[in-house]
Design brief:
Elements lengths: L18 E15 L1 H5 L15 E15 L11 E11 L5 E11 L1
Antiparallel strand pairs: 1-2, 2-3, 3-4
């Protein structure tokens, strides 16, 4: 198995806060799947990330709280909501190692 080293340094540094948010009541669930099962769901030119020959599908649920612009307060009535994501992972897209969200759902 080839493992590429990964460090915590961001690929790009931003000088100004554009959006602020906090995640609460968070759950990460992942299932191992055959890479071929998810390859057809990925954008053209990408491939599934693998670990020990398997790819993983993630179901992530959380409550986003205090969503707001810049350093200001959260947006009233819109700044807190539940969100659910289904994630597939691919090396190099959209960042060096990143998730591709297949679906998302937000509920106030």
């Amino acid at each position: 198995m080839d493992v590429e080293p990964v460090d915590a340094a961001p690929a790009q540094s931003f000088r100004r806060t554009v959006l602020r948010q906090r995640w609460e009541d968070l759950v990460f669930l992942h299932w191992p799947v055959e890479p071929a099962a998810v390859a057809r769901l990925l954008p053209a030119g990408t491939r599934p990330d693998t670990f020990d020959g398997l790819s993983y599908v993630g179901l992530i649920g959380f409550r986003m709280v205090g969503l707001g612009l810049g350093g200001g307060p959260g947006i009233p009535y819109l700044g807190s909501f539940w969100e659910t994501n289904v994630r597939l992972y691919s090396p190099g897209v959209p960042v060096r190692f990143g998730p591709l969200s297949r679906s998302g759902s937000a509920h106030p």
